[in-house]
Amino acid sequence: MQRETDPARTYLRNRILNASPMELVIILYEGGITALRKAKEYAAATDRSRMCEQVIRAQDMVRELRNALDMTRGEIAEGLYRLYTFMVQRLIKANLEKDVKYIDEVLTMLKDLKNTWLQGVSNLEEKPKVTVPENYVDIVN
User: Fold this and answer.
1) Which one in 10, 61, 78, 140 has a CA-CA gap of 20 to 30 Å to 16?
2) Between 11 and 92, whose confidence is greater?
């Protein structure tokens, strides 16, 4: 466990606290992707306990994405809400059945959503600065 005075942890905390809403979405997508990649590594090493921890971490990030939706935005928000709910259900199933196929399924969806989000952001005049550490999940552990 890393100490509260760890510079990487402090950096990440400050990064999140100072991020724009657009950046926070990207950070959550990246965090979920990283957690699921780690879950797959732990599954391959037959470390089911750590696999489950990372799947739960990804669930938390997807839930946060779902909770942040502005449901007054109509069909897109409703569709994302249903998709995020489906993703959480698949991750629960991954943990219950200890099956990587559900992790792969959600990992693909998160990557696609992140890429779509980045394309949408790139069309904006004012672009957010995005520098998510590659080892995002490691930093917050």
Assistant:
1) 78
2) 92
Asked if the structure places residue 114 within a domain, the reply is: yes
pTM: 0.81
Q: For residue 141, is it within any domain?
A: no
Mean pLDDT of 91-118: 95
62's tokens: 């997807």
pLDDT digits (tens, 9 = 90+) for 16-71: 888 778 888 888 999 999 999 999 999 999 999 999 999 999 999 999 999 999 89
Between the alpha carbon of residue 93 and those of residues 12, 30, 82, 125, the distances in Å are 30, 21, 17, 41
Interatomic CA distance for residues 64 and 106, integer angstroms: 15
What domain count does the chain have?
A: 1
Q: What sign results for the dihedral spanned by CA atoms 8, 3, 18, 65?
A: positive
Q: How far is residue 62's CA from residue 28's CA, in Å, rounded to a whole number?
A: 7
Query: What CATH number does the domain containing 103 carry?
Result: 1.20.120.340
